[in-house]
């Protein structure tokens, strides 16, 4: 019962013929830090969407925090999503809300007091070193700052599992390292981290578990990145 | 959302209000005619003054009676002669008119029943009222009510389609925002509420704009057609209570349409973040 994520024979078929994932079996322990790597179309995004239930598998079972997502009723999906922290590839920040409002709005859904919402929101911004930009709108922030704000929003719930889809996709290497160090700190605090990335330098230097996908299947799953991984990313 | 929806709902409410005003004006006119109809109670010859006073008192206390007026045969004949003095020669004719009690009712619906009861009194020779006119009025009021209600309901439904489409376009423009809220775990009602409140407020505001239009229209028409001065021109062509009723219906309908239009447009909330590919 120590698994944060379990995929049991998961297959995802789009439009009845295109395979997104083929018979995937994998397990991520609580407190793990895992990179998912692979070419475009390898199935990384499909895997993540299955985790936050934006998709349902065509066959097999997906368990997140001991919850079978196939058995999850539609009305319970919002509550389930509030137990996860998700950093989306395109950040998905509310454009007409300031940085602090983007975080506060999510916390209000938890039914917290105004004082607690404010406290948590500022703490989350502090963790990603964005306290000075609390009143800025997303379009006033750089790409890296937007990513950090998205992380701040994701961790404001105090989730046990954080999922990030290409969090360093469109930002420079220096900012990418800053973001990775935030993830590493969160992992040290006990949070399970699952990241998809194309960046071979980051994957090699972080020295974490790497699951490589190819054509919707797990090609390799190792604790150490291998030279083959670099070539294929 | 706000400007397009406000313009759309305002125009809709103006047309809705015009139909409503026409309907209420016709209703008011037919009711007014009905209210002016009298029940004439002709008394037998040689009924004593004491009996007449007693009868007037009895009729006054009957349900549905608003006023009672006794006209003696002498007064009636004098009035008749005065009216016809230059038209026909009636100096040789003996007064053929009976003593009469004129009964005004609280509404045309009471007349037939009162006539039936009053005609049973021993002092009464016969009762008369314009039955055909009342029947025709009754039919007219029923038809106006039916046609008016159907027109208003039909128009309200058509407005709902137009308005929900307008709001739907605005919701689609904010689809990304809705999807983000879903993805971060917002409950459907948490997402819908601000939009529904906004839709209801736009409906309310648009209705008030429509009412301002009617105030100016009434002032303009009252000056141009019937030359009534303010403040009464505010209410023309309706009486005060019907005008208030009309405003109330417009505000209620506009707000409800804004609410329902938003609600219908947002029925897909909760499904935006789920990819439809399986």
Describe this structure in words.
- The complex is a heterodimer of chains A (233) and B (278).
- Chain A has helices spanning 44-51, 77-81, 99-108, 114-127, 143-155, 173-188, 200-206, 227-232; strands spanning 3-14, 18-29, 33-37, 59-64, 67-68, 84-87, 161-165, 192-197, 209-214, 217-222.
- Chain A has a domain at 93-158.
- The model of chain A is unreliable at 225-233 (pLDDT under 50).
- In chain A, 43% of the residues are buried.
- Chain A is an alpha/beta fold.
- In chain A, helix 3 packs across helix 4.
- Chain A is globular and about 45 Å long.
- Helix content of chain A is 34%, strand content 27%.
- Chain A has eight helices and ten strands.
- By secondary structure, chain B is of the alpha+beta class.
- Chain B folds into two domains: 2-32 and 135-265, no CATH class; 38-129, Alpha-Beta Plaits (2-Layer Sandwich).
- Chain B has helices at residues 2-36, 49-60, 73-84, 111-118, 131-173, 175-183, 188-226, 240-265; strands spanning 38-43, 65-71, 100-105, 124-128.
- A four-stranded antiparallel β-sheet of chain B has the order 2-3-1-4.
- In chain B, helix 7 (188-226) packs antiparallel against helix 8.
- Chain B starts with a helix and ends in a 13-residue tail after the last helix.
- Classes of the chains: A alpha/beta (233), B alpha+beta (278).
- Chains A and B meet through strand 1 and helix 2 of A and helix 6 of B.
Report strand % of chain B.
5-15%
Number of strands of chain B: 4
- Please name the two chains that share the biggest interface, counting residues whose Cβ lies under 8 Å from a Cβ on the partner chain: A-B, 31 and 19 residues
Main sheet attributes: strand count, strand direction, barrel closure of chain A? 6 strands, mixed
Nearest-integer average pLDDT of chain B: 82
What characteristic shape of chain A results from the CA principal axes?
globular
Question: Distance between termini of chain A?
Answer: 32 Å
Q: Which regions of chain A are unreliable across 5 or more consecutive residues at pLDDT < 50?
A: 225-233
What count of structural domains of chain B?
Answer: 2
* SS strand fraction of chain A: 25-35%
How does the overall form of chain B come out from the CA principal axes?
elongated
Major beta-sheet overview of chain B: 4 strands, antiparallel
Number of strands of chain A: 10
Radius of gyration of chain B: 30 Å
In whole angstroms, the N-to-C terminal distance of chain B is 32 Å
**How many helix segments of chain B?**
8
Assembly state (oligomeric): heterodimer
